[in-house]
């Protein structure tokens, strides 16, 4: 039973209660926004608007996306969520009827148009993923024990990496889309990071080579190799002569090179695993004077100017961090990064923030 002091702590006015209740319900129902965005992505709503010259009515959308006429009102409700969230915009005519509403793209939904060079729609199913959600639902029981297996292993009986080859390419396509866009921006903003690489680079966990191919194209003097798991390498395209593929395990051996690239790798692993991977990287590169370095492309939580951080808000960064818990991964702050670099035997590092989502970290032996 609560003591009088504890009861004081729970007291609130009716207005306060009503506001708190609305806020609580808002947080509980926020997942619907993710699911609605996923539905619109699967249906190709952004492409439909683009095909209609950038403006589409509800019935245009229905006919373009194959919505059954009996479900038109459901589509209207979905579009109401997505316009309230700023993912699409809507203009109404004078008559108050959603039937004359005209939907348009915003800067967010432009990223979902397949013909855009900034196309990120394949990333949506990677983040709005029922396998991740069902794993994260087990957080309370997992946190209460010293269980060493990750939430994903616990929920699905194997590590994430054993399933990505059999998911119809969804994960690989999502990562490839992210790499295409990220490298476009990175090479424009801080290409010097790669320009300084003497002659060879190994992209560890480089999947089907989208990132390595972008580096090889921009810097033909760099011989680019991708190291990934055997099943992933077996499905890699055979037609890209600029990239060599090597099957292996980064915990065991990394082929020698002037630079090792790790893009979205270390956030998949807990500290002790990152230290093991970084030690293998250190063994693979020459000294700093001879041009050796590790290039990490990841989030540094809280890094960059306040304006850059606003792009990927503090809340989004910490949400991504807890999302990564499903495979025992971590989004790290600078002090967490520096701890693993020094424990792995590196002597120095330099962070270049690109925006709130991505930073480039050069780590020196
Ligand atoms: C999150 S994905 C990142 C892919 C790519 N670097 C990118 O940014 O698009 C992680 C990659 O690490 C690979 N991987 C996982 N465990 C590995 C291991 N032990 N050795 C080599 N690669 C591994 C996976 O197959 C996958 O391609």
UniProtKB/TrEMBL annotation:
Coiled-coil-forming residues are: none
Residue ranges constituting the O-methyltransferase C-terminal domain according to the UniProt record: 144-347
**Reactions performed catalytically:** N-acetylserotonin + S-adenosyl-L-methionine = melatonin + S-adenosyl-L-homocysteine + H(+)
Transmembrane feature ranges: none
**Active-site feature positions:** 267 (proton acceptor)
- If you read the UniProt record, what top EC class would you report for this enzyme, in one word? transferase
- Which molecular-function annotations from GO does this UniProt entry contain? acetylserotonin O-methyltransferase activity; O-methyltransferase activity; protein dimerization activity; S-adenosylmethionine-dependent methyltransferase activity
Q: Which residues form the O-methyltransferase dimerisation domain?
A: 26-115
A single Gene Ontology biological process assigned to it is: methylation
Q: Which Enzyme Commission number(s) are on file for it?
A: 2.1.1.4
Q: Which Gene3D superfamilies match?
A: Vaccinia Virus protein VP39 (3.40.50.150), Winged helix-like DNA-binding domain superfamily/Winged helix DNA-binding domain (1.10.10.10)
Pathway it works in? Aromatic compound metabolism; melatonin biosynthesis; melatonin from serotonin: step 1/2
Keyword Flavoprotein set for record: no
What UniProt keywords apply to this chain's record, in alphabetical order?
A: Melatonin biosynthesis, Methyltransferase, S-adenosyl-L-methionine, Transferase
Purpose of the protein: Methyltransferase which catalyzes the transfer of a methyl group onto N-acetylserotonin, producing melatonin (N-acetyl-5-methoxytryptamine).
Family (UniProt): Belongs to the class I-like SAM-binding methyltransferase superfamily. Cation-independent O-methyltransferase family.
Q: How does it assemble?
A: Homodimer.
What's the name of the protein? acetylserotonin O-methyltransferase
Its source organism is Triticum aestivum (Wheat)
């Amino acid at each position: 039973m609560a003591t009088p002091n504890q009861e004081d702590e729970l007291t609130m006015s009716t207005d306060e209660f009503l506001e708190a209740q609305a806020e609580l319900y808002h947080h509980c129902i926020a997942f619907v926004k993710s699911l609605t965005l996923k539905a619109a992505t699967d249906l190709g709503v952004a492409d439909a608007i683009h095909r209609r010259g950038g403006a589409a009515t509800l019935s245009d959308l229905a006919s373009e996306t194959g919505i059954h006429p009996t479900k038109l009102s459901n589509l209207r409700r979905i579009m109401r969520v997505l316009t309230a969230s700023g993912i699409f915009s809507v203009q109404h005519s004078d008559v108050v009827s959603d039937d004359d509403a005209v939907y348009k793209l915003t800067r967010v939904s432009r990223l979902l148009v397949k013909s855009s060079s900034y196309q990120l729609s394949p990333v949506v199913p990677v983040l709005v993923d029922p396998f991740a959600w069902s794993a994260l639902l087990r957080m309370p029981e997992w946190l209460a024990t010293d269980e060493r297996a990750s939430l994903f292993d616990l929920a699905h009986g194997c590590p994430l990496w054993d399933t990505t080859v059999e998911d119809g390419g969804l994960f690989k396509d999502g990562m490839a889309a992210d790499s295409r866009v990220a490298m476009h921006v990175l090479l424009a903003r801080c290409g010097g990071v790669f320009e300084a690489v003497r002659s060879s680079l190994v992209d560890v966990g480089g999947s089907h080579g989208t990132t390595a191919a972008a580096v090889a194209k921009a810097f033909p003097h760099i011989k680019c190799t991708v190291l990934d798991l055997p099943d992933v390498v077996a499905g890699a395209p055979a037609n890209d002569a600029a990239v060599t593929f090597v099957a292996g395990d980064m915990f065991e051996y990394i082929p020698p090179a002037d630079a090792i690239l790790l893009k979205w790798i270390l956030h998949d692993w807990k500290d002790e695993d990152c230290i093991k991977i970084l030690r293998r990287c250190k063994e693979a590169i020459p000294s700093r004077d001879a041009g050796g370095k590790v290039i990490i492309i990841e989030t540094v939580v809280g890094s960059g100017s306040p304006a850059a951080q606003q792009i990927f808000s503090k809340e989004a960064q910490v949400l991504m961090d807890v999302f990564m818990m499903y495979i025992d991964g971590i989004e790290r702050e600078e002090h967490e990064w520096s701890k693993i670099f020094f424990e792995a035997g590196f002597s120095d590092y330099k962070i270049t923030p690109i925006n709130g989502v991505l930073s480039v970290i050069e780590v020196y032996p």
